[in-house]
Amino acid sequence: MRFDHRAVPIALLAMLIDSIGFGIVLPVLPSLIVELGAVSLAEASRIGGYLLAIYAVTHFFAGPVIGNLSDRFGRRRVLLISLICFGVDYTLMAFAPTLAWLFLGRAIAGIAGATYGPANAVIADVTPPERRGQAFGLLGAAFGGGFILGPAVGGLLADFGPRAPFLVAAGLAFLNAALIATLMPETLAPENRRPFDWKRANAIGAFAPLLRAGGATALLAGGLIWQIAHMVYPATWSFFGELALGWDAKAIGWSLAASGVSMMVAQTFLIGRAINRFGEERTVLIGLVAGTIVFAGYAVAREGWQVYALLAFGALTGLVFPSINAILSSRVDASNQGALQGGLASLASLAAIIGPLAMSQALAFGAERGMMGGAFVLASLLCVVAFAIFLFGVVRRPGKLA
User: Fold this and answer.
1) Is the pLDDT reported for residue 298 higher than 90?
2) What whole-number distance in Å separates Cα of residue 223 and Cα of residue 226?
3) Lowest-pLDDT range of 98-112, 198-212, 245-259, 294-308
4) What is the distance between the alpha carbons of residues 97 and 45, in angstroms, rounded to a whole number?
5) How far is residue 296's CA from residue 351's CA, in Å, rounded to a whole number?
6) How far is CA 54 from CA 58, 86, 264, 301, in A?
7) Could you tell me where the beta strands, DSSP code E, fall in 35-175?
8) How far is CA 55 from the centre of its chain?
9) Are 223 and 322 in contact (CB under 8 A)?
């Protein structure tokens, strides 16, 4: 793909490094929770869900504020400050003496965790509407690329203890901040900036320009349900790997890396072709069908080769969110792209509040009764609901605008 602005590859690189930092800690999180909390693995899965939820709660309120700040002061400054805060957060978690410190670290990360929204706004600033779906797909591919390297490295670093990956993640966050400070130009033109408005700096206000455009309710509802279903991965995968498959940190790391490979391939090479051939709306439906099948497959998979086959096919789920984002971003003007992306970040945070709580409880409930796939059954059912919403509320909606 030809980049429309030199800020785009820098934003992609920043997202790659940031996702490496996130993925690098996943393989060791179960053992760290067990160590600090002196609990069983099943109970640790519940605590892991609470950790993800506290991050999402703080991010839910902070996301629109940071998105609106990027509409006022520009993308570069907001990204820089957020990444510095992330570096401090990972350092704090590396030396956490108790579970309470882990929760504090996650709360700080939720407030600072605005990299995805402003990075999307960078792309919206400089990319023509007809190319945004493919560009957003590349941003998702960069995130997937981080999941290739991050979990694999995290699994290897587990030999040095469950805290070592957090120190490496802190270093990557600071490196990311240095790249933004030295290489990234500002993409929001002065004439497109607007005063900060607290009325828009919340999840409802951030969507006001979009809601006025019409036809957004089904998009937002279906997108929320899809993201709740997709939270089954960060909420339960490391615990599922140990409980259902007997994997150690290295095996979990390699499986997450394989998932990153498949997602990056799909979002780099398939998203643009799928949108060109089927359109953004039907591309969403294809991804949701794939999600329904894959999640149901994980519920019954008990061999490693089965999981890896599902990981490969599950790459098609990477078509969903870039297509939704492209539809939504085409319905607001340049001065509100940051607010929209902040609103989408809050939507994701709402899913990240509900999803980990629901998925971790489903996993723990099933595991305590010898049924390891409960979380994936729930995720598959949610995909069916999201598919119905998109089919009847968007694709077949009379007088639809998209």
Assistant:
1) yes
2) 5
3) 198-212
4) 19
5) 20
6) 6, 15, 28, 30
7) none
8) 12
9) no
Name the token pair of 260. Answer: 């990153």
Instruction: Give the integer Cα–Cα distance in Å for 304 and 247.
Output: 9
What lies within 8 Å, CB to CB, of 169 at 6+ separation is 20, 21, 22, 24, 25, 90
In the numeric block, the tokens 């899809």 are attached to 226
Please report the domains of the chain, with CATH numbers, ordered by start residue: 7-395 (1.20.1250.20)
Q: Is the pLDDT of residue 110 over 80?
A: no
Q: Decide: 266 and 319 in contact? Cβ < 8 Å.
A: yes
Q: Full-prediction pTM beyond 0.70?
A: no
263-280 pLDDT per residue, tens? 777 777 888 888 888 888
Token pair in block for residue 313: 């096919």
Cβ proximity of 80 and 401 under 8 Å: no
The span from the CA of 247 to the CA of 75, in Å, is 41
Six-digit token string for 129: 């509407």
Amino acid at 333: D
Residue 62 CA: distances (Å) to CA of 139, 158, 163, 239: 22, 32, 27, 29
- Residue 40: what are its φ and ψ, rounded to 5°? -75, 165
Report the pLDDT value the prediction gives residue 144, as an integer from 0 to 100. Answer: 66
8 Å CB contact between 298 and 289: no
Residues in contact with 181: Cβ distance below 8 Å, sequence separation at least 6, in sequence order: 80
Cβ atoms 379, 386 nearer than 8 A: no
pLDDT of residue 401: 39
- Surface-to-core class of residue 2, CB atoms within 10 Å of its CB (0-12 exposed, 13-18 middle, 19+ buried): exposed
**Rounded Cα distance, 264 and 141, in Å:** 4
Residue 365 CB-density burial (10 A; 0-12 exposed, 13-18 middle, 19+ buried)? middle
Contact, 274 vs 286, CB < 8 A? yes
d(CA 140, CA 116): 10
Cβ-count burial 181-200 (b if 16+ within 10 Å, e if not) = eeebeebbeeebbeeeeeeb
- Joined together, the tokens standing for residue 14 give 């920043």
- What's the pLDDT at 334? 64
Task: Tell the burial category of 46 from Cβ atoms under 10 Å away from its Cβ (0-12, 13-18, 19+).
Answer: buried
- Length, in residues, of the chain: 402
